[in-house]
Write a structure and sequence with these properties.
With 298 residues, the protein is an alpha/beta fold. It is 37% helix and 23% strand. The relative contact order is 0.12.
Length: 298
């Protein structure tokens, strides 16, 4: 009897565990069979992929502003800022930074399902499947001339995008002046991405966004590497409905309306061109005081 009692005492916990598992299974089956459970399961199945980059925001700018916090981007921004980075490295780094920011900025684009076939491992058969294709018509709006350095990486992300250039420069009074505009007469896009590496006073971006709204762009998304705190606030004050994706926010602007620390003149650094003082604009290049806003070495 003692042996039999010991035998039963060792089996009882296993029986109890099996019974509990069976009860849980029945309960789960009962829950999933109810309409509410079925709806919940369906909703769970429709949750977005965890790989998708969801927009976030940095207070106090609101939900339309996304400031990337990626450590690799922070490293690349340091390379981009450095005065020892020559034109060649500056171009390649700006390309990498734009690709990263563009990947995050395009996370809100709409897609539609398309049929496709996938090759089987035997290289002969094909498997029918369903894929995704970007449904939105996208336009890239680089602001000349520094915005040109951001076009190619964005076209790699959205190869079907059209490109329309807008040329702007700042007057001595820091007011934006438009000198070039290649927007078509009719707006046939769903989303327009404005490309400019820097947002300083934001007067240029505010002006370009206003031009795009008059053109009829339904959605406008500003993509920039660095923005000033003041410029970002001003842009949102005039255009609170615009989405903004940036890599960093600088606190200060100097008396000339330039970002501190910023990254220098993005156009000069991108194309390796010297800074020409307004007093020397009519002087032959060989007679000018040649100064560069960056190291000339590549």
């Amino acid at each position: 009897m003692p042996l039999r009692a010991a035998h039963h005492s060792s089996i009882d916990p296993l029986c109890t565990l099996a019974k509990e598992m069976e009860d849980e299974k029945k309960t789960a089956e009962g829950e999933t069979s109810s309409p509410a459970a079925a709806a919940a399961a369906a909703a769970a199945a429709l949750k977005p992929s965890p790989a998708k980059v969801e927009p976030n925001f940095t207070a106090p700018y609101g939900p339309n502003v996304h400031v990337s916090k990626h450590p690799v981007l922070a490293h690349k921004l340091s390379v981009l800022r450095s005065s020892s980075t020559g034109p060649s490295s500056f171009r390649s780094t700006l390309r990498e930074v734009t690709f990263h920011l563009g990947y995050e900025a395009t996370s809100t684009l709409a897609t539609r399902e398309i049929p496709l076939t996938v090759p089987a491992t035997n290289h002969e058969d094909h498997v029918e499947s369903v894929g995704q294709k970007i449904n939105d018509k996208v336009a890239l709006i680089p602001i000349l001339r520094s915005g040109l350095g951001m076009v190619d990486p964005m076209l790699e992300l959205v190869s079907s995008a059209t490109v329309h250039h807008i040329g702007m420069y700042r007057s001595k009074a820091l007011m934006p002046v438009q000198y070039y505009n290649r927007l078509p007469k009719v707006c046939d896009v769903d989303v327009a991405y404005v490309l400019d590496p820097l947002i300083a006073t934001s007067a240029t971006i505010i002006s370009v966004v206003g031009i795009l709204k008059k053109w009829g762009a339904p959605q406008i998304h500003v993509l920039s590497v660095i923005a000033s705190k003041k410029g970002l606030s001003e842009l949102l004050r005039y255009h609170p409905d615009v989405r903004i994706t940036i890599g960093a926010i600088d606190e200060k602007l100097n008396a000339d309306g330039n970002l501190i620390p910023g990254l220098g003149d993005a156009g000069d650094r991108l194309f390796g061109t010297p800074f020409v003082d307004d007093d020397e604009e009519l002087v032959h290049p060989s007679k000018r005081k040649r100064t560069l806003s960056m190291n000339e070495s590549s």
